[in-house]
Design brief:
single chain, 144 residues, 5-stranded parallel β-sheet, 7 helices
Length: 144
């Protein structure tokens, strides 16, 4: 990939829905940024989110979610992907570092074997307690 050849330093990749941006997301993105020189964020498309989270999601469109994530200082680029996992995107981008939140383990992160096979690093960032989109939605609905 021509883009990848022009990058200097470590490229970091993370992904998610980022439907209601909250402190947990900010902590994940800050940790991901600290792990390298360029941070690329994959954002699930609307169809992908519906398949993964159900018909009530996403609350915000993929374009809106990507716009908000791209506006953050830690983020260098955002890519919307339509698949249920970002494996094709990870394969295309060949990141040096793959970062996910603590609701995953190093062995359940999609793309981890591929990144490690190229000599890359996989990082699991601990979740920020009491900060999740599901928790926000439950509190907003009064069902906590």
């Amino acid at each position: 990939m021509e883009w990848r050849a022009r990058q200097h330093g470590a490229v970091v990749f993370t992904n998610g829905v980022f439907d209601l941006l909250h402190r947990g997301h900010a902590d994940l993105l800050a940790a991901a940024r600290a792990a390298g020189d360029r941070l690329i964020v994959g954002v699930n498309s609307d169809d992908s989110v519906r398949r993964l989270k159900g018909p009530g999601r996403p609350l915000n469109s993929a374009d809106d979610r990507a716009h908000v994530v791209a506006a953050l200082a830690a983020v260098d680029a955002v890519v919307i992907f339509d698949e249920d996992t970002p494996l094709a995107l990870i394969t295309a981008l060949t990141p040096d570092v793959l970062v996910k939140g603590g609701d995953y383990t190093e062995f359940t992160i999609v793309g981890a074997p591929e990144v490690r096979a190229r000599g890359g690093e996989v990082i699991v960032v601990p979740l920020t307690p009491r900060h999740s989109t599901t928790g926000l939605l439950e509190r907003a609905r009064g069902s906590h």
